[in-house]
Prior knowledge:
Layout (H helix, E strand, L loop, with lengths): L1 E5 L6 H12 L2 E4 H11 L2 H12 L5 H11 L9 E4 L5 H13 L7 E6 L2 H9 L1 E4 L5 E3 L19 E2 L6 H15 L2 H7 L3 E5 L4 H12 L2
Parallel strand pairs: 1-3, 1-4, 2-3, 4-8
Antiparallel strand pairs: 5-6, 5-7
Helix pairs in contact: 2-3, 4-5
The structure holds BIS(adenosine)-5'-pentaphosphate (AP5).
The site of BIS(adenosine)-5'-pentaphosphate has 35 residues, from helix 1, helix 2, helix 3, helix 6 and strand 6.
Amino acid sequence: MKLVLLGPPGAGKGTQAKRLEETRGLKQLSTGDMLRAAVAAGTPLGLQAKQVMESGQLVRDDLIVAMIAERIGEPDCAKGFILDGFPRTVQQAEALDAMLVAKGLGGIDRVIELAVDEPALIERIAGRYSCAKCGAGYHDKFKQPKTNGVCDRCGAKEFVRRPDDRPEAVATRLAAYRQQTAPILPYYRARGLLTTVDGMADPEEVARQIDRALGS
Ligand code: AP5
């Protein structure tokens, strides 16, 4: 299955993609995670992406499309994949369709939109942090470690917050979603691929709604 998860920053795309990876054996392909890895490794792509990401703007379409085109050809994607954070512009959506056809992979099977109000998004992003060692995700209000200051998963005591989770960058990211990403919704609706789920519900209920949309 080839699945796209769409939604504004903080909608829960990463949360649901990780669950689907476990329950359905699909590979999560997060363009945000790939770019952050490129920034951390100091690759040419990372050097180009760093400032753009920290400001909350979108990285250039051609760079992103080339990155994904290479990734979906790898063996761990053979059983199917979940695109988390891609496509993010109509140009990326068109390039994705063309690349799947060129690789003989058919088309996207389903697009799930996670719909969440902006005040809730801001609250989710403002409180989010992760373990500096293993990346496990936490939240000041919704998900604290069981022992204060100690990662549940690996026991590390250092935590980090994303540079683009600062309020100025979050405002830019939300505007980028409204202006550049939301126009993708009619693109997929017109092709009969789009299902919108209530991303305001708790994560388990969101997961149930996605499972209903995907079938068994
Ligand atoms: P990216 O990493 O994709 O960030 P994003 O889309 O802004 O999404 P987030 O990771 O912030 O949120 P999410 O929807 O995954 O939510 P999460 O599950 O973490 O992109 C970062 C940057 O990279 C972009 O700004 C851009 O510069 C660049 N980039 C990436 N892709 C690109 C592309 N295709 N083109 C161009 N540039 C690109 O959840 C958020 C929080 O809420 C967590 O704390 C979680 O625990 C909590 N939570 C989740 N679900 C629920 C729920 N149902 N109820 C309550 N809390 C919940």
